[in-house]
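Hi team,

Filling in the usual template for the complex we talked about on Friday. All components are listed, including any nucleic acid strands or ligand strings, so the model treats them as one assembly.

SUBMITTER: L.P.
PURPOSE: interface mapping
COMPONENTS: two
RESIDUES: 229
SEQUENCES:
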Amino acid sequence: AQSVTQLGSHVSVSEGALVLLRCNYSSSVPPYLFWYVQYPNQGLQLLLKYTTGATLVKGINGFEAEFKKSETSFHLTKPSAHMSDAAEYFCAVSRYTGNQFYFGTGTSLTVIP
Amino acid sequence: NAGVTQTPKFRVLKTGQSMTLLCAQDMNHEYMYWYRQDPGMGLRLIHYSVGEGTTAKGEVPDGYNVSRLKKQNFLLGLESAAPSQTSVYFCASSHLGGGNSNQPQHFGDGTRLSIL
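RESULT (copied from the run log):
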């Protein structure tokens, strides 16, 4: 069975501060991991993905995530938060059969001016 | 390039009514998916399709039916709507690719459905 846990349903940071959104997964096989962002009244947009190779993955809008197998984690970071980063963020792990995705429950990021 | 298009964007139904949500993708993707999004629960997979003419159940399939008669379209049906089906519904699609677990899914903008 596969599952994804996002610690913290709400995270608030000041503009210019570090953003850290946590994601842990459980998987019986090496996972493929994704981070998506959802702005109000929109669908999900891909931020970044880890499949194989380098464990530090860079995505759009200055975000990056590091795959740590020993910690079963895939935390999302951004060095300096911008007001436009305020959104809902979802971590997901995929399953081989049918490319099914399992999503975490999401983290709502608020950026304080 | 439209990507994934969902119609309608909003709908209000009465309990017991039926309706069909349409998803269309123009990226020639093999796989298509229907999710529902509820507060605090993330996205849950309802049904998915790995190709034209095929469908499979996801995590929460009860009360829904789907059809994939054409590769570019994936329809989600509610035969007898219930208030518990009030949700935001998202369609997604992805390529098969090599090693088919590493292809990102591309999402539509959602359909907001209220059942009274």
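MY TAKE: Chain A has a mean pLDDT of 90. The interface with chain B takes residues 9, 32, 34, 36, 41-46, 49, 51-52, 90, 94-96, 98-101, 103-106 of chain A (CB under 8 Å).

Thanks, L.
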